[in-house]
Specification:
The structure holds two protein chains of two kinds. Chain A is mostly helical. Chain A contains ten helices and three strands. Chain A is elongated. Chain B is of the alpha+beta class. Chain B has a domain of 60 residues. In chain B, 26% of the residues are buried. The chains are: A mainly alpha, B alpha+beta.
């Protein structure tokens, strides 16, 4: 299943949620769709801590924090079929990747490959020149401000980034293809990590 | 063993919502999915083991025939495990599709 196969309602919800959550997944259990996000590192550590008490609180913590759509009340969660919670939580834990060295390694490899992209080089240069700026702050810059800061960064560091302009002839051999790069960057890779009824 | 009638099915559906029927060894069993809160009560019991939890799940979710611990003990060995597996699938365990990255 791909994004285009999802119901319109889910795609609309995802579009709204995307502003706040860069990494999200859609899960389908029978006819139920859910939009979930992976846990942050801090949330994962808290999840592990909760598990130690053996009170079954950790599943509800993950479900409450990471299921973005639909929103459930406590009573609704109690009355959901048991597999909805357990399987969704297991999937969230899996997608969060912290539990699996293989998943984590795969994500690190993917990110390392992105370091060759012009966009990553620009970010690295700017962060080096302006340590007070973080990536989230830089992402709020428009192209003009970004260009100005990059030029300033080059001055400060005494370097000059070189980008090969793409022409019709160079399309296949060019080092930097901004269209492709932007497409790849948007989702940080589009593949998933790894992560008789009586009637 | 009482025959399952349409009236019985209608009444169970009204009471439980989603219900399922399976025939095992010539005997009809009607069951329903287990809810989160019921499942938590069973697996949250400190002394629970696999066999005990299977029996508790079947006792909780088997609608027909009506069973108690004594009748469960007299069932054929595979019946309880098979019913538990069916109840778990009906309760949406292991039925999730591959996640879609958004």
């Amino acid at each position: 299943m791909e994004i285009k196969d999802l119901p319109l309602e889910i795609r609309k919800r995802a579009a709204v949620l995307k502003k706040d959550w860069s990494s999200m997944y859609c899960l389908k259990i029978k006819e139920t769709y859910m939009i979930i996000r992976p846990m942050s590192r801090g949330e994962f550590l808290f999840f592990l801590d909760l598990s130690r008490y053996m009170l079954d609180l950790e599943e509800e913590f993950v479900f409450n924090e990471c299921v973005l759509y639909p929103e459930y009340e406590k009573e609704e969660i109690d009355n959901l079929y048991a597999g909805n919670i357990t399987d969704v939580v297991n999937t969230i834990v899996d997608l969060s990747a912290f539990l699996s060295p293989e998943n984590m390694e795969g994500m690190i490899d993917e990110s390392r490959e992105m370091m060759d992209l012009a966009d990553s080089q620009i970010l690295a240069t700017m962060c080096k020149a302006f340590p007070q700026l973080d990536i989230d702050a830089i992402n709020k810059f428009d192209a003009q401000k970004l260009s100005y800061y990059l030029a300033l960064a080059e001055q400060i560091l005494g370097v000059k980034l070189e980008f090969t302009k793409q022409t019709q002839k160079q399309t296949q051999n060019s080092n930097i293809d901004f269209m492709t790069e932007n497409k790849n960057l948007r989702g940080f890779g589009n593949e998933s990590p790894r992560g008789g009824n009586v009637s | 063993m009482a025959e399952i009638t349409q009236e019985m099915i209608a009444e169970w559906k009204k009471k439980y919502g989603e219900i399922y029927q399976v025939n095992l060894g010539g005997q009809a069993f009607v069951y329903r999915p287990i809810k989160r809160i019921e499942y938590k009560q069973i697996i949250g019991t400190p002394e629970v083991n696999r066999a005990l939890s299977e029996e508790q799940i079947v006792q909780k979710c088997l609608i027909h025939p009506v069973v108690d611990p004594a009748t469960l003990a007299a069932e054929k060995a595979g019946t309880i495990s098979t019913l538990t597996d069916l109840i778990m699938v009906a309760s949406n365990f292991g039925v999730m599709e591959e996640p879609v990255k958004l």
